[in-house]
């Protein structure tokens, strides 16, 4: 008799692979959002000027491309997740390094970079950890 709240069904390799791709898909969505946000927010009011625009745009493109590659070939490109970890932390720090304003409606660009940076860093760390554990489990089985 099974306990309430527990599953007697074992996870299949395909199910585990799909679960491992969820944080990578979230990284991809965050990257696409950054590309869109580069055109939505006015970076000309920041001390960084166009540097803020290019920072968000390039970070978004790289995050989305890295996530897309990892979605297509998760086993071969597991180490690429570290690129998104670094970019996530850079997005958290970049508003301070590039001089984004912190008052009024212009705070949206700063908040956007920091929130998306936190999410990208978290999802990337989760995805890298899942990939590393999967590789270790495959080595012990072989």
Q: Overview of this structure, please?
A:
The longest helix is centred in the C-terminal third of the chain and has 35 residues, at 107-141. By secondary structure, the protein is an all-alpha fold. α1 packs antiparallel against α2 and α2 packs antiparallel against α3 (81-98). The chain is elongated and about 55 Å long. The chain contains four helices and no strands.
Number of helices: 4
Computed structural class: mainly alpha
Mean pLDDT value: 83
Largest sheet: none
Range of helix content: over 70%
Molecular shape: elongated
Can you give me a brief rundown of this structure?
73% of the residues lie in helices and 0% in strands.
Give a quick set of tags describing it.
mainly alpha, 4 helices, 142 residues
